[in-house]
Amino acid sequence: MTGSLIVINPNSSQTVTAAIDSAVDPLRRFGVPIRCLTLAEGPPGIESQLQADLTIAPMLALAAAQTDAAGFVIACFGDPGLHALRDQTALPVLGIQESAVMTALTLGQRFGVIAILPGSIPRHLRAFGSMGVLDRLAGDRALGLGVGDLADPGKSLAAMIATGKRLRDEDGADVLIMGCAGMAQYRATLEAETGLAVVEPCQAAAATALGRIALRQSHRR
User: What is the pTM of this model?
Assistant: First the structure.
């Protein structure tokens, strides 16, 4: 029997985990069980490099305890511990940031990112630089909201739509990436309001992971 795709939310917010679970639910039709877990040791929201790095050790321990795993998704837009977990296991391991960018590159020529806080942008740029995709980046704009604010449509939805339109009209983006796992519930509305393809990163990573599981592909040879 095929094991489960394990999606780990490295922050301790059950609200964010529930949004991730809802976002990946359409992918359950492919038959592989998907279990979304919350890292109890994580901060309520990951908003800095320090917070991200401090989640790596407990996240690796949580992953190691999942005896039914067929693959893993790290559901934080910063991919903390991505390469460490790939060292730990031969099972497919996908990060939502890396997967979102790779998916966006197949949907448009220039991608724009809706970030949470201004401090997130330097982290994004370092990652995009290491991926060699800065020439395809149209822009990266912050909402000025924390992870906890994203669960409230009254605080976040209008800001996300306005930011998406600025990325489209001022920066020339023709595909958008939602730069936080906590944004998952707004994808359909954002697509309708901007007229652009919108990549929800947890969906992108889970879809890729399911393909790797089906094809028995691994980062190890």
Answer: 0.93
